[in-house]
Amino acid sequence: MTILGTIASSYASASANPTFELITANTLSIATSQFSFSNIPSTYDDLALFMSVRTDRTSAYGVGYVRMEFNGDTNTNNYRYLGMGQGSDSQNISPTLYDSTYTYSSASSDFFASDIFGNLWFYMPNYRSSYTKSAHAEGANEAKNTYPIKDFKGYRWTGTNAITSIRFYSDNNFKANSSFYLYGINNS
Question: What CATH number has the domain spanning 3-186?
Answer without folding.
Answer: 2.60.120
